[in-house]
């Protein structure tokens, strides 16, 4: 085999590879990546390649980088470690990850509101167009719905699409990921008019602004909220403006489950149960009191509302009506978004284990599993930035029955997940490039409603012919 005689000389006998053939020995390439690359770039190659490439990401570019290195950037040469064939083999292995990302990243915008999917053709009917970030929706008994906007407004949308702003919303810190977040109705809303808002509560101290995730209970009377009362305030407050979590869902037990993110404390808070509410899923009664069977209720040193821990930034929480389990999804860093089924007292691992790496490409753990830590039932590489979640508990969508719908902020689509034995066995990308999908809900009328950002839109998903 001809060897390189200089940094720019590439053995052309290995270029190019046709789509119908491959030189990749996946087993050898994966082993070489794990043994020589994962220490700096992370265990999962697919997470590492989700990046901007300073020196190019073609086959020759990768060969040169591995062969000769870029010492000034911390990339060593592997010319004495691998043969040329092994370097091409490793380059081709990395290219499979790059090609996988491309399926998410085309820039083709929808040309109409009609979309053909695997099982049916649907149209998107715009039922709300206002604001920038419609974060959540809740459906009223009269056929209308409420929609929050992260900027701090709550609107009522009538059956006739008339929009009325609701007064009495709590003051919020609108910065970064903070603002007015989720809204859910009390299970007996038709009788008591109670609803719940999650939001970024703030305070001024020592000339600094601190914020945290709070849950407010209030009553909707006409077009105004009354009897406002915070029934949960996460501690500690932080000056950061991200990872609030804030998703809520009532369980079949009648209790309110909700998420609180790490607020940027990635290594301390998620595993800390002592006087720390961050990086957790919490469970409280509708009035804010603590259920007697909460897993840590008898430990005076633990925050009694904690139900699970070891979470990063959960922005999806939903009840599965088939078996009454609570499902959750959360953002990883670069790679490692997770889908989980929530179980009392379980540790979900952040940041001890993860399938992701740091945003700057460095690693923070070499573990993807550990005894005593609950593994995800699904993880995404590359990160899709999941937000919102709904089970299709309706017969309106033929072929989608019992599927799980998850919004993607990053790649701007709705992810249809086919489930079997509590595993995701198939996914379909719906409405590619429709916009950052912030929320997806199944309304009492059996239809799916999807909230999209920038500009703010809520779409009703209607099978063609309905």
Provide a compact summary of the structure.
The chain has 466 residues and is mostly beta strands. The chain has helices spanning 26-41, 45-48, 59-68, 84-102, 189-192, and strands spanning 114-116, 121-128, 134-139, 145-149, 153-157, 163-165, 180-185, 194-205, 208-221, 224-233, 248-250, 256-260, 280-284, 306-309, 313-320, 325-331, 337-341, 378-380, 386-391, 404-408, 413-420, 423-430, 437-442, 448-452, 457-463.
Fraction of residues in helix: 10-25%
Please name the fourth-level CATH homologous superfamily of the largest domain: TolB, C-terminal domain
The shape, in one word, is globular
Going by helix content, strand content and strand pairing, the class is mainly beta
Secondary-structure element order, N to C:
HHHHEEEEEEEHEEEEEEEEEEEEEEEEEE
Biggest beta sheet attributes: 5 strands, antiparallel
Mean pLDDT: 93
CATH architecture of the largest domain: 6 Propeller
Count structural domains.
Answer: 2
Query: Reading side by side through the largest sheet, how are the strands ordered?
Result: 1-2-25-24-23
Strand residue percentage = 25-35%
Radius of gyration: 24 Å
Strand runs, count: 25
Tell me, what is the CATH class of the largest domain?
Mainly Beta
Low-confidence stretches: 1-22
Which fold name is given in CATH as the topology of the largest domain?
Answer: Neuraminidase
Distance between the termini: 65 Å
Instruction: Compute the number of helices.
Output: 5
Organism: Pedobacter segetis
Protein name: PQQ-dependent sugar dehydrogenase
Domain Cytochrome c: 24-98
Pfam families: Cytochrome_CBB3, GSDH
């Amino acid at each position: 085999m001809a060897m390189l005689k200089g940094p720019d000389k590439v053995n052309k006998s290995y270029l190019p590879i046709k789509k119908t053939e491959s030189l990749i020995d996946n087993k050898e390439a994966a082993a070489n990546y794990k043994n020589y690359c994962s220490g700096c770039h992370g265990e999962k190659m697919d997470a590492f390649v989700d990046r901007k490439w300073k020196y190019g990401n073609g086959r020759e570019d990768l060969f040169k980088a591995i062969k000769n290195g870029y010492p000034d950037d911390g990339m060593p040469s592997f010319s004495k470690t691998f043969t040329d064939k092994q370097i091409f083999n490793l380059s081709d292995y990395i290219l499979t990850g790059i090609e996988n990302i491309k399926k998410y990243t085309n820039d083709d915008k929808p040309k109409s509101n009609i979309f053909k999917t695997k099982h049916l053709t649907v149209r998107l009917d715009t039922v709300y167009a206002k604001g920038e970030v419609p974060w959540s929706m809740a459906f009223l008994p009269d056929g209308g719905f409420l929609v929050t906007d992260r900027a701090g407004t709550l609107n009522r949308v009538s059956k006739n699409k008339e929009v009325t702003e609701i007064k009495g919303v709590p003051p919020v810190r609108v910065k970064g990921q903070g603002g007015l977040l989720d809204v859910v109705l009390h299970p007996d809303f038709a009788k008591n008019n109670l609803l719940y808002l999650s939001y970024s509560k703030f305070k001024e101290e020592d000339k600094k602004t601190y914020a945290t995730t709070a849950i407010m209970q209030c009553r909707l009377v006409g077009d105004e909220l009354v009897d406002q009362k915070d029934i949960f305030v996460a501690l500690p407050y932080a000056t950061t403006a991200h990872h609030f979590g804030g998703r809520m869902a009532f369980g079949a037990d009648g209790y309110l489950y909700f998420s609180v993110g790490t607020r940027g404390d990635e290594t301390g808070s998620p595993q800390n149960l002592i006087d720390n509410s961050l990086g957790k899923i919490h469970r409280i009664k509708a009035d804010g009191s603590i259920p007697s069977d909460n897993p840590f209720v008898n430990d005076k040193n633990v925050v009694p509302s904690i139900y699970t821990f070891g979470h990063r930034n959960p922005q999806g929480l939903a009840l599965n009506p088939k078996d009454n389990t609570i499902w959750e999804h959360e953002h990883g860093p670069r790679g490692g978004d997770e889908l989980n089924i929530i179980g009392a007292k379980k540790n979900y691992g952040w940041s001890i284990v993860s399938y992701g790496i740091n945003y700057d490409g460095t690693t923070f753990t070499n573990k993807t599993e550990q005894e005593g830590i609950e593994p995800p039932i699904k993880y995404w590489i590359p990160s899709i930035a999941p937000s919102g979640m709904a089970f299709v508990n309706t017969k309106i969508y033929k072929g989608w029955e019992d599927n799980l719908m998850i919004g993607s902020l990053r790649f701007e689509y709705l992810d249809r997940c086919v489930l079997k034995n509590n595993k995701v066995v198939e996914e379909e990308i719906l409405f590619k490039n429709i916009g950052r999908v912030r929320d997806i809900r199944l309304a009492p009328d059996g239809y799916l409603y999807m909230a999209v950002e920038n500009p703010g839109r809520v779409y009703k998903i209607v099978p063609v012919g309905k």
